[in-house]
Amino acid sequence: MMTKAKQPPASGQKSIKSFFSKNPRPPPSQAAPPSQDTKHTSAGPKQAPEKQEPPVNTRTSPRKKASTPAQPAAPAAADEAAAPAKTTAAEVAAEPDGCQLVCKRVSVYWPDDDDWYQGTVKGFNGSKHRIAYDDGEQETVDLSVEKYKIISGTEPEPEPKPEQRSAKRRAAHVIFSDDDDEEMSKEADESPGDSASGSDFGQDEEKEPAKKKAKTAPTPAKATTNKTPASKTPARTAPSSAQSMGKKTPATKTPSAKPAGSSAKLAAMPAAIASSTPAPKGMEASDDWQRYTQRAAQRFPFLAADRVMDANRRRPGHPDWDPRTLHIPPTWFKDAKVSEGQRQWWQFKAQHFDSVMLFKMGKFYEMFEMDAHVGSDVLGLSYMRGEQPHCGFPEANYQAHAERLARAGLRVVVIEQTETPDQLKLRNEERRARGQTKVNVVNRELVAVLTQGTLSDPDMLRSHPDASYLLALLETPAPEHDGGPQPEAGGTLLAACAVDVASGHMLIGQWCDDPMRTRLRALLAALHPAELVLPKAGLDGASGKVLKAAAGSVRTNHLDFEDAAAGRQGLADSAYFDEQGTSAEGKAGMPPLLQGLMEAGDSHDPSLRALAGCLAYLRSVLLDRPVMAMCRPEWLPQSSFPSPGGDSAADSAAAAGRPPACMALDGNALEALEVLEGSSGGTDGSLLGALDRCVTPAGRRLLRSWLCRPLDDVDAITARQDAVHDLMHGISEEMGTARQRFAGVGDLERGVARIVAACAGATGRDAEAVVLYEDAAKRRVMAFVSTLRSLQALQRAMEGLQAACGDMSSTLLQKLVTPGQALPAFAEPLDALVAAADWEEAAAQGRVIPTPGTNAEVDEAEAGLAAVEKKLAGYLKEVKQLLKGGPISSISYVPLHKETHVLEIPSELEKAVPGNWERLAQRKGFSRYMSPALRKLVKERNELLQTRELALSSVLKGLLMRFSQHRDTWGGAVEAMAQLDALASLAAAAMDASANGPVCRPEFIAPGSNKASDTPAVFRARQLRHPAAACGGEWGSFVPNDVCLGGEEAPFILLTGPNMGGKSTLLRQVCLAVVMAQAGAWVPAESLQLTPTDALFVRSGARDAIMSGQSTFFVELAETAAALHRASARSLVALDELGRGTSTSDGAAIAAAVLQHLASTICCRGLFATHYHRLADDHQDDANVSVRHMACHVDSAGDCEQVTFLYKLAEGACPKSYGPNVARLAGLPPSLLAPGFQYW
Fold first, then answer.
1. DSSP 100
2. pTM, full prediction
3. How far apart are CA 540 and CA 543, in angstroms?
């Protein structure tokens, strides 16, 4: 049957039902929340399971004319031909009915859509017909009360199944049967996809969604000449030009998380400015995008570029303009006839205009207006049909979608319902009693703010085990140093506070940095911050450029940092630690480091201000209390903190938490040596990848920090080496068993931290007032049970290691496995918690039933219930005695409706029933009575049941509080496990590496003073290989070399050799050997002797810093300057081809001066790779410089020399660099090489 294409509405005209409609779908019932997989009630759309491919909508019928270009108006005759004849009631009654309609073709009128839809009658159940529409949707409907027309023709070929839609068409006109409700509810339960929405604005949320809908008489058909029929439901097929041409478009896209680009602009920019607001990908040329922007310009005039203002009515360009907020004229809500639900949404949006808002309606998170564009662009959600942009997803998909939005660099605001319809009804009754007007929407509150650096939900962190730091930075002028070294010209004082909100790990510190911000770059390279917090004015030029270059894609927040006095007062008044009081171990609530920082002098003010700035941001995202409840503060390595035993007790307290002495590794070293990341971006090919055999996330995070901060204390290094040796040889089997148990504990560090944070006050979606359809209580019980099981596995692992203590020679290992030393005595509190309930039953039921004797309130209620049950049994005996003379054995208690105990008495005994007994019901041969005495007992029993339920509801909270009181114990146990895991990883890596060549335990020589005349620092390695050799496989084999620096040999090596001859590799393997040795690892060599290195400087590779406006040569010299200023006699410096970024004469002169200063003035160890062969001649007889080269074999036959690389370190200088050989290998045409050979 042909249908006529209809014209789209004129601008501003509503022909598609809006989500601001006054008659939307009601939300699902909140009285009895369904399972988390449930979608909608009978009015909701059917959806495909998540694991299945979403259906594809290829419909091009008039129901989809929202994206169809306007057509010229057709004559009335065409309309009559296009649509079926309007059937009258008499005609309907005259048509065949019942089974006679099966297999017939019909056209059914949908009042809400004001249109007719064709289909085939597939079946009849005696009262209703099942219709399969031509678009693929099916419906069970009573045709005797519907407008329909029998049509001719045959059933068309089946199209690809369109996206399922709700049975919205008679939202106020059809009564569904109980069978239909059950069927549709079952379909909803089985369909946890994203392709349907929850609710619309404007609905009366006080009303519970009815399972049966009111029916009215069929309304006359309306003229459809100038209307575009809405679809049966607003299906989530994203409008696009591709669809208007009939192309298949997936209903749900699943793009990977992307940086906040166009999506951030879509979320934060005025939606009415179409010219400056980018369209979601794929919608740039669509009619829908133009329609959305035109509608926004007309409906939201306050978003226009020349009228937009912040909440304080300041315009863009004002010094204090706040782009995070929006001013909405108070009269707009009335003028625009805004519903209560719409007003509520805009009030939240005005406070968080820069954020993407997830607005909870029923059991769906809805995204409206500019947020809907973000949902389409980032999450791949399809738009609901209608004039307003609108999409959403079910509660069950919250973690996945919210995480994706946050990891895309967006700020996500979660608005949850904090009131049920029943509670709203009670509130309205109270308002009515006070003479106030009725409220039609439930209360909602902002419960969570998610960003890339503030994710703490376990489900959002499951695939990201590494720490995710929020970093607050502050910059102040460098202080004057009386009698001490003056700061470098262009230097500055930087302070930082970094926190991992998931584990509570906090780093605080301050330092004086050089003009290149070397230490800042090292901090950024080591922490890889996920989010930055900076002062409102930002940082100065040099620091700002470093941040832009190193963390340009990281989300950055600007706010006012308090001064030190205000920071101290704020921390003192915050009461973060008051609720915790003292822990079970008797320690004060506030960590000693923070206590000392508050009491320290002015010299620590920058650190305190950085902490205050970090807390201010955490407060703005509702995380300050949870983070401070579980925080474990430490000083940043290389910070300028007071030494213990200083001039004041405050300084000594501030020094608490000071890390052990460690080697200084700057950002250049971490990157050039590929300590944490390989050239491909992952850990493959990196030092971390070569050594990481950890089985726990906490162990991996600790190993990573060890490599960023190698030890600089011989005793500490030796203790770690002894532990690794024992794990390799003494207790390898016991440790293998323990590691198997460690592998089952999961991320125990974050699990403990989350429980402790929750006890400080439930926040986010865990808050008590939040209305959730998922079983939140069961989820909390499961999380607690999982943590207890993990601690039990840890306890068993430690007990196994304790049994092997006699075989341990390592003092460190013994401390880590002995309760009361490095390992807290956690068995007793853990056993008490485990014995407090049947946790297997708790995991299965989702609620905690305490073991008798562990909860006085529950025990008292249980005792009362047992007494009442005894009274009931005794009363039943009394009744039998009273009515004796008949079949008294048949007298019993039965339940009836809401009554749990009703007397069921045989009919032959009814004459003996006392007159004051009330007969409630009867069945054949029996009557059911309620006596006054029984009613009293039942009432007493019900009251005790309520008392028990109330007591049971607080059991989990009480156990969580008991758990939190031992937070230091659990934290210490997890830390001991992490150290054991990291040590075992070093041992396993050493044993794996031994299969590919010799490995050795480095031998450390105690350092002398920094004067060159005293004991010099040394580095002596035999048959040293690159650590990547330990990996084998794709990394191939490495030629071993003997390397000696210092001692009897010169401390510096001047290294020459052919291009690609292995000079850079030798430099890297020497530096990596030092890092491995001081981290406590075995080194791939036959032997290694070295003096601990206090700092490692690496200048390698040619790169510029475009974002900082620095050329390649400038970067070379700036990195070299950092080594010249900070290196000592115990440092190791590796310079690779310094001076190549300028002319030969200039580069050679600079290289010669730098080499002379490092080797003769600083007298440090180092390697200097160069192609300036004159330097080799100049230092041929220099006792501080050893001239070496990477050996090669040269075949001079032919026009171009053939060079074979030997990769062996040899005495003397290489005669030349053999550049033509590399040119030949790179594929330069031979015709160019032969003529050019004369220049080489």
1. G
2. 0.75
3. 6
